[in-house]
Automatic annotation (TrEMBL):
Full protein name: Patatin family protein
Domain PNPLA positions: 4-173
One Pfam family from the record: DUF6363
Presence of keyword Repeat: no
Keywords: Hydrolase, Lipid degradation, Lipid metabolism
Protein source organism: Aedoeadaptatus acetigenes
Length: 276
């Protein structure tokens, strides 16, 4: 079974949007799609067969005050306006409706990773958790801790799936995937440092201690999973040569277009790899 994993990375994952648009334009199909955070958003656009949709969100909508920013944070306590992204814009009557019927009709399995805010453990949602104008599973996976409050969904509270399962290769293989394409949004030789997460760990440890512990182990988990995919002959890793100093929530249209174009070009690696 052929699978693809998009690990997300906020605004950097416009790179993944480019890879997946190449796949749409060249009819590259996967049996299994697993998305983390922004990666889940990219993959649902791929499954909906809406090329260019994800890019529009990164390079157009993200620059709107309604999308994210300090103003929204002061008003609501959430920096990223998930209701606007996965509701106002994406609903059937929104500015760029998601074609959920195509997502549901796709033969590919779709798995979405989120992190339980109270246990710190990974939760895996599927297409069965999606309904017309109800995209909470995707929003939960993209809920960045600290800058956003945990998102309430189906009786639980969730944050970014990358906290608990940043490169979910074990999940994919446990589900039967034998060949995997993994989209990273940092170079292949980038290994996380635990101190990068320290500020967020300290902010979370009182109200969400289990989540803080999971976040404190994220670098260790990411690095272990990265070594695994780099050593696996049945895994193709596609990554940008540089992040261009793009941070998770940084808005820079020129750099976003560069990353998108690089991702689109590197999508050709998938055809060559599958043809071997």
């Amino acid at each position: 079974m052929l699978g693809i994993i998009d690990v997300g990375g906020g605004m950097r994952d416009v790179f993944g949007a480019g890879v997946l648009d190449y796949c749409l334009d060249h009819s590259i199909q996967f049996d299994y799609c697993l998305g983390v955070s922004a990666g889940a958003s990219n993959l649902i656009g791929y499954l909906a067969q809406q090329p260019g949709r994800s890019k529009t969100f990164y390079t157009d909508y993200a620059f709107r005050d309604d999308y994210m920013g300090v103003k929204h944070y002061k008003e609501t306590g959430d920096f990223i306006n998930l209701d606007y992204i996965y509701g106002t814009l994406s609903n059937h009557d929104g500015e760029y409706p998601l074609d959920l019927d195509r997502v549901k009709a796709s033969s590919a399995r779709f798995v979405i990773v989120a992190t339980d805010a109270f246990t710190g453990e990974a939760t895996y949602f599927t297409k069965d958790d999606l309904a017309q104008d109800r995209y909470g599973a995707i929003a939960a996976s993209a809920c960045v801790p600290v800058v956003n409050r945990p998102l309430a969904f189906q009786g639980g509270h969730y944050v970014d799936g990358g906290v608990s399962d940043p490169i979910p290769i074990e999940k994919a293989q446990a589900d039967g995937v034998t060949k995997t394409v993994v989209i990273l949004t940092r170079p292949k030789d980038y290994f996380r440092r635990p101190r990068r997460d320290l500020y967020f760990v300290l902010r979370l440890r009182r109200e969400y201690p289990a989540l803080a512990r999971a976040l404190s182990k994220r670098a260790e988990t990411y690095n272990r999973q990265l070594r695994r995919i780099l050593a696996d002959g049945n895994t193709l890793v596609i990554a940008p040569k540089s992040t261009l100093h793009m941070k998770t929530l940084k808005l820079d249209l020129e750099k976003m277009n560069i990353l998108y174009d690089e991702g689109y070009k590197k999508g050709a690696q998938i055809e060559k790899w599958l043809a071997r």
